[in-house]
């Protein structure tokens, strides 16, 4: 089965067509990538660990800790209707059991201002960073993390819940576990530690369930889910990239991707059946051989600044898989491209959104789309080099300037408004 849309390169999407009532057009960020000065978490330590492979320090990032209002105004000016951002756990709980009312009030101010501007606010509780005190106890590999995370979720819900419009417990728990314990590019940087990977994957899943309960029990009534990194995966059983291959849709432990497929995708999609939505974050199509390892790209293949294949149609394919397995509404909580040339971003979104439209036309229940990212920001191990933003940020003055892709996406959003299915 091949759901991939024809390329349509070069031809810019002008009309997304009618969207269902309640649809959101938004853009996303994450605390550590934009706030700056997040010195209390595991990433800050990792950035300053010689040999970690991280290019540079997040430093002041985009100084959004101070410039958050300007960021909200940008979202509004672009013409989008929602802003996804994350809470920095280490600011809210800088020491174990010690909570900062001032940090909670900071995030509350963002929520209130978003509403004053007429924006909907989507809050992520954990976007890759874990407080240093928790990391020192083993982070996500320690079972204690589950109740620590639940307590944090509970405090966040009590203080902020009445202003939240949509929440994700964890951003890409599959990346946290895989990059931390298999790839080793993320803290704690333990490549090939399968036992650590299994433990972290288990505690991330339990952490999601515990935090979901805390969010649902608190004030406010909003959809709760998690977001997953969900590449479109094509398996070539013969190990030959040029063979047609088969899209992987069975993510059970006995499926073609085995334990890895289950722990990095299947277990979360299964749990999402009791969530209110599944957040899909797709950037590319990957091709894997019979052993599950990624097949090298042919030389000359078009790639993004991340070195990922330029394959925007991956989005339509993976929302179909997510919806089929999780059986709950899909929200595209991230999609975008790291590109130096902004025209490439418009091409990427034109094609990814066309593939999304095709999935929706085939009956997939999609409720919204968040572009990654509002700002050019700190791209984890790769530092500030890859630029995903709709808005450029001057590294010295922090001045923001919207790119043409921002105006284009805003135009698309405006055109689709009022044209409900
Ligand atoms: C993450 C973002 C990241 C983006 C591009 C996602 O994995 O949620 O934090 O910047 O992809 O790598």
UniProtKB/TrEMBL annotation:
Where on the tree of life does the source sit, at the highest rank?
Bacteria
- One GO cellular component, as annotated: cytosol
Keyword entries, A-Z: Glycosidase, Hydrolase
> Gene3D superfamilies from the entry?
Glycosidases (3.20.20.80)
Per the UniProt entry, what are the Gene Ontology biological process annotations, in alphabetical order? Answer: carbohydrate catabolic process
Q: Sorted alphabetically, which InterPro entries does this protein's record hold?
A: GH (IPR017853), Glyco_hydro_1 (IPR001360)
Q: Is Transport a UniProt keyword of this protein?
A: no
**One matching Pfam family:** Glyco_hydro_1
State the SUPFAM superfamilies in the record: (Trans)glycosidases (SSF51445)
Molecular function as annotated in GO: beta-glucosidase activity
Similarity section: Belongs to the glycosyl hydrolase 1 family.
| Protein name, UniProt field | Family 1 glycosylhydrolase
Q: Which organism is it from?
A: Demequina lignilytica
């Amino acid at each position: 089965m091949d759901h991939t849309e024809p390329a349509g390169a070069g031809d810019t999407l002008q009309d997304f067509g009618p969207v269902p009532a309640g649809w959101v057009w938004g853009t996303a960020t994450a605390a550590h990538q934009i706030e700056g000065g997040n010195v209390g978490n595991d990433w800050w330590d990792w950035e300053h660990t010689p040999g970690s492979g991280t290019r540079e320090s997040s430093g002041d990032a985009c100084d959004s800790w101070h410039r958050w209002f300007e960021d909200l105004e940008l979202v509004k000016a672009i013409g989008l209707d929602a802003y996804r951002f994350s809470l920095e756990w280490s600011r809210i709980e800088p020491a174990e059991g010690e909570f900062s009312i001032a940090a909670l009030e900071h995030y509350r101010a963002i929520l209130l201002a978003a509403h004053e501007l007429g924006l909907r606010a989507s809050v992520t509780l954990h976007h890759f960073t874990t407080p240093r005190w928790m990391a020192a106890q083993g982070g996500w590999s320690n079972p204690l993390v589950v109740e620590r995370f639940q307590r944090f979720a509970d405090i966040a819900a009590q203080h902020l819940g009445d202003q939240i419009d949509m929440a994700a417990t964890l951003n890409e728990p599959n990346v946290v576990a895989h990059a931390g314990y298999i790839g080793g590019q993320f803290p704690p940087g333990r490549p090939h530690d399968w036992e650590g990977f299994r433990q972290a994957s288990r505690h991330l899943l339990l952490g999601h369930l515990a935090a979901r309960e805390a969010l649902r029990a608190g004030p406010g009534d909003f959809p709760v889910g998690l977001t997953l990194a969900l590449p479109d995966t094509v398996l070539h059983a013969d190990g030959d990239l040029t063979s047609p291959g088969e899209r992987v849709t069975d993510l059970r432990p006995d499926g073609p991707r085995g334990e890895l497929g289950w722990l990095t995708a299947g277990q979360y999609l299964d749990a999402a059946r009791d969530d209110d939505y599944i957040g899909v974050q797709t950037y590319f199509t990957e091709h894997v051989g019979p052993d599950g390892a990624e097949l090298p790209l042919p030389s000359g293949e078009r790639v993004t600044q991340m070195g990922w294949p330029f394959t925007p149609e991956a989005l339509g394919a993976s929302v179909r898989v997510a919806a089929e397995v999780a059986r709950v509404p899909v929200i595209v909580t991230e999609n975008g491209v790291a590109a130096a040339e902004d025209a490439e971003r418009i091409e990427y979104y034109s094609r990814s959104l066309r593939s999304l439209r095709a999935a929706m036309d085939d009956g997939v229940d999609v409720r919204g789309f968040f572009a990654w990212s509002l700002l050019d920001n700190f791209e984890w191990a790769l530092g500030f080099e890859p630029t995903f933003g709709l808005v450029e940020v001057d590294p010295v003055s922090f001045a923001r300037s919207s790119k043409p892709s921002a105006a284009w996406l805003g135009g698309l959003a405006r055109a689709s408004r009022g044209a409900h299915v």
